[in-house]
Amino acid sequence: MSLRRVFRLGLRQFAAGMLSVLTLGVLNRVMKVEFGLNLVVVSAVIGIHYFAAVVAIPLGHQSDRRPWRGYHRTPYILLGTALTALTTALAPFAAFLLLRTGASILAIVIGAALFLLMGVGMYVAGTAYLSLITDITEEQERGKVVAITWAMMMMGILAGVFLTLQVMERYTPQGLVALFVSMAGVLLGLTILGIWGQERPRPTERSGEALSLEQAVRVLTISRQTRLFFTFLFAGLFFQFVQQLVLEPFGGDVFGLPVKETTLFNAYQMIGTLLGMGLSGAWLSRKIGKKATTGIGSVVAGVAFALLAVASSGQYGVLVRPAIFLLGLGMGAFTVGGLSLMMDLTVKEQVGLFMGAWTLSQALANGLASVGGGMMHAVGLALFASEAGAYALVFGVEAVGSLAILALLAQVDVGAFRSEVGALSFQAFVDTG
User: FRET pair for 270, CA 20 to 30 Å: which of 15, 80, 297, 421?
Assistant: First the structure.
């Protein structure tokens, strides 16, 4: 693929990065700090969209078997993006409803339903997008394409930060609505520009050769290494992403920072992430290997969480920005190493299926991390009777967890995976049902 085509393909990821800033960096902050809503409610309502990832495997498999006029991925990407854009434009009104009703049960249910629909759109589009990349790239160029599009998502996060600063330097209801409606249009426009014409129509696989959904799911369970990596990926991302709905409220509650300053947390983190990805992809993973790179990323992230815990408990504001940058550095190395391992732990004949499984693992980890962050904060508040102590507990748990998962990583073995799965005859699997 030409670089021009790769960069155009990455526009969808760029838009997804911008969207993540609004939902996880702005709306959660406004709901917690400006609206005074309970963080458990905020994290549960917003975080529920991750649980829509259960559609990743069945709909990813569906796109293999049921194309529209020969297009297997494009219709799913466009429909999923349209649903995501619509729910994005409506998201501020769900927040206003929670504020107006004092977070009534009905308002919580309506808000959660809206974000669940947003998640369905995101994961329908996202799974089909990963499958599209797999379909249109050669094996030897796939790593380069994934690295570029992933980096474009990081750049999208930075762009989302600066868009937020331009539209909403200080919180106003009108500014919040304008920001989300604008983002809905940007998401839809960039996705269409990015994927239009990328896919070529092709015939559907004959039903006699295709795995049913039940058989496809069984494929995922035949290897101990598959189950082990699913668990590692889930645990690693859980401990890294508990902070994603906590970090901005932490800046407001403990240090009294305005929306503008806490939104910049995303910039510090993403600059660190891009640097970590660049160093790891260009040098570290080649020098010490993918598995060791993943481990180093987890250790660096653990140290960053420990610094944030110290900063919160002692209200040492000077530590916050360096710790957030260090967190991004660790997450960048973890992403490069983990993504490379993920690509290695894939069966050639069923790439889309395994990608769906890894997507599900990541999304479930993100969803439970979002809810878990709010619950940990509530426990810390009950134990220490202070916001500083509550956030210190959250970051402390993340620090310990980021180091504990190294025991799981030590058991991941690509060679063992290939021995367990590589010789599998999928036609025989179908025949034996």
Answer: 80
Domain range annotation of the chain? 1-200, 211-433
- 54-79 pLDDT, tens digit each: 777 777 767 777 778 778 889 999 99
CB under 8 Å to 123, separation ≥6 — which residues?
52, 53, 55, 56, 59, 80, 359, 363
* pTM attached to this predicted model: 0.74
CATH 1.20.1250.20 corresponds to the domain 1-200: yes
Burial call 293-306: b when 16+ CB within 10 Å, e when fewer: bbbbbbbbbbbbbb
Which residue type is seen at 59? L
Expressed in angstroms, the distance from the first to the final Cα of the chain is 38
Residue range 291-308, pLDDT digits in tens: 999 999 999 999 999 999
Cα separation, 361 vs 344, whole angstroms: 16
Task: Tell me the average pLDDT of the chain.
Answer: 84
| The CATH number of domain 211-433 is 1.10.455.10 | no
User: Alpha helices, DSSP H only, in 242-319?
Assistant: 247-255, 259-279, 285-288, 290-314
Provide the token pair at 11. 């526009």
